[in-house]
Amino acid sequence: MTTPGQPGGDLGPDEIEQLVDDQLSARQVPYEVVASDPELADTDAFCSAYGYALEDAANTILVVGKSDPPRFVACVLLATTRLDVNHAVKGKLGVRRASFADRDQTRSLTGMAIGGVTAFGLPDGLRIWVDRRVTSRPRLVLGGGSRRRKIVGPPSLLTSQPGVEIVDGLALDVVQQ
Q: Max alpha carbon distance in the chain (Å)?
């Protein structure tokens, strides 16, 4: 797989949110949309301001494999872990170098701003890898497609989505200092 097909950057926040809502509705899994101040969309700030446990927050991070053409993957991991880009992601992508996609790449490919990126409403063909630890939480707080909302629901929201792959060791424990 190379660069996935659109929707991507040509859609506005309302259209992306509708795309996310349509995919979530198709899952037939209960979920809640929680409105958020866009200034509080980053995980730590959101959890602190709205009373959610950081252990329940799952971030969706776009990674680009440095190849010709570049290879993209969306990775979902708990906020209390860090993505193993240099080993797990790079090896699974089959590239020599991989890095976090920057804000412009993320917006261009997904139509979403960092702080609102979610595993729903992504372009066709974009692989979605979920760290196995995400599936062990009773509920998740996920991006909502824009910085102005979050999605709260069980892990089955992710695991019931076509094309999602559960990956052992995608993320590492964060070492406290």
A: 44
Q: How many domains does the chain have?
A: 1
**pLDDT, tens only, 129-175:** 999 999 999 999 999 999 999 999 999 999 999 889 999 999 999 86
| CA neighbor of 40 nearest in space, from 22, 57, 61 | 57
Give residue 100's domain range.
8-163
Q: Mention every residue, 6+ apart, whose C-beta is less than 8 A from residue 35.
A: 148, 149
Whole-model pTM: value is 0.92
Q: What is the CATH number of the domain that holds 43?
A: 3.90.960.10
Q: Is 113 among the domain residues?
A: yes
At residue 46, does pLDDT exceed 80? yes
φ, ψ of residue 97 in degrees (nearest 5)? -140, 145
